[in-house]
């Protein structure tokens, strides 16, 4: 499904790289180089997602973010910030931000963040008028042994106030599972769920968050393994002293607890203490028998959003979905179904259209995203430029047009590469 994106980035090289990645994934991208230009472009035609350079000079960032949200409340902001300065940024810059991308990040991280934002926008639209207190999230629908066992464990854990650790791949539905657990623990909805993005937390922000908590508050700690060491130590000391006046704690981390212990920035004690009741979400590929049920639940709502008549998967289409590996998990499946609803006419979805949509997916097995981790900006820039030239059969002018730069820029860079060889 094409996502309209506004990319606000001052660095020409990064803007070119990000734009190429996003457009090759099928997104519609408009660019701006300053906050003022970005605001003007945004007001002209609000996008679904804004990718914003968090270090741009100009108008106050907090006012800018609020202006974005006031103009189009459904839009999601992705802020890019260098890892080296992430913890020194004022907390106010994180207001109204859907996700923080710490530079340098690879292609898959960017595309996943955009897909997650698009899926969240869609979920918000589908949730209007729904009874969210009893509704089972899309990611927990199914009758496979894996998801049935997980729901049984979740219901058992809902009777306890002990810390719960939810693990699984990116896109498996960890946040949805955590929010559903909170609703099951508090069916009257008398308490609140306070969500904390651990990647950008500091001791000061944790002090503020915990000061606002009450005995009716539950904490949801996203990506607990990425909590910076000082903030983690502060939280651990509060837990050791039994000084957290909250109802319960739910944490999430990507992968397994064992993996997290090898990469975590903080002491392993914190993760062990928060892992009292573990829930591991299976990959979508591990529960193929649930795909038909998930699709049957999502399609009526997607059709309603797009004002289309009802649609159902044919048996062959369902088999085609089940045969796919789904590296992007739930967000990729929802976006695939959304694209089918937009492109397809008629009540029956055939295997052919499923194949066509999956073949165009940026996460398709035959077109894996290149790993840019560890490469210098110059290396990434050269990779993108050379790939664009190959995609346009060696035409530098066409490649330059697709990258949003002048042909002379590419000719000059190629000459410099040859001189350095």
Which characteristics define this entry?
4 domains; 18 helices; Helicase, Ruva Protein, domain 3; Rossmann fold; 5-stranded parallel beta sheet; 421 residues
Describe this structure in words.
With 421 residues, the protein is of the alpha/beta class. The protein folds into four domains: 4-127, Response regulator (Rossmann fold), CATH 3.40.50.2300; 138-282, Rossmann fold, CATH 3.40.50.300; 285-359, Orthogonal Bundle (Helicase, Ruva Protein, domain 3); 377-420, Arc Repressor Mutant, subunit A, CATH 1.10.10. It contains 18 helices and twelve strands. The chain has helices at 12-24, 35-44, 61-71, 83-86, 107-127, 145-157, 174-185, 203-211, 229-240, 257-263, 268-274, 291-305, 315-323, 329-343, 351-359, 377-391, 396-403, 407-420; strands at residues 4-8, 28-32, 49-53, 76-82, 99-103, 164-168, 192-197, 217-222, 248-254, 277-280, 312-313, 348-349. Strands 2-1-3-4-5 form a five-stranded parallel beta sheet. The longest helix is centred in the first third of the chain and has 21 residues, at 107-127. The chain is globular.
